[in-house]
Amino acid sequence: MAAADPQSILKQLTACASSESPDLSTVTSLLTSIKLLALTSSDPSLPSINRSALECGVVACLKGGDLEGFERNMNQLKAQIITERGGEREKILGLNLMHRLCSGELSSFHSDLELLTHEDKQVRDE
């Protein structure tokens, strides 16, 4: 069996996750494929592909109403997003904070808020 190309899987995942109402079973399947590749391959591009895939998973689960999937993907992504800039960082952190606030998880909201840097808290004119 030939090894799957992580870039092509990520493209499929991105396309699926960006639709108005993503097919969560397809998102989960593609995300699982990338996670398995990240565990079994030494390809140096896989950490960034894995991060992008988890970002897609977070957004898709939220769009599809799968809050458990959102939290699962967010928990896997949180260590990378807190320590590294780039990607959809601000969007994902904001979605997580809104989720915590709206679901009444005030202690988790405040804990996650404390992880933000001074630069994260600055309002940007765009």
Topology:
Blueprint: H1 6-17, H2 24-40, H3 46-63, H4 67-83, H5 89-102, H6 106-114, H7 118-121
Helix pairs in contact: 1-2, 1-3, 2-3, 3-4, 4-5, 5-6
Would you kindly provide a written description of the structure presented here, covering whatever features stand out?
With 126 residues, the chain is an all-alpha fold. It has one domain: Serine Threonine Protein Phosphatase 5, Tetratricopeptide repeat, CATH 1.25.40.990. It is built from seven helices and no strands. Helix 1 packs parallel to helix 3, helix 2 (24-40) packs antiparallel against helix 3 (46-63) and helix 3 (46-63) packs antiparallel against helix 4. It is globular and about 40 Å long.
**CATH classification class:** Mainly Alpha
What percent of residues adopt helix (DSSP H or I)? over 70%
The value of Rg in angstroms is 15 Å
What composes the largest sheet? none
Strand proportion = under 5%
Determine the mean pLDDT: 87
Instruction: Write down the secondary-structure element order.
Output: HHHHHHH
**CATH overall fold name:** Serine Threonine Protein Phosphatase 5, Tetratricopeptide repeat
Judged by helices, strands and strand pairing, the structural class is mainly alpha
Q: Give the strand tally.
A: 0
What's the CATH architecture?
A: Alpha Horseshoe
Supply the number of structural domains: 1
| Distance linking N and C termini | 48 Å
Q: Spans with pLDDT under 50 lasting ≥5 residues?
A: none
Shape: globular
Instruction: Note the total helix count.
Output: 7
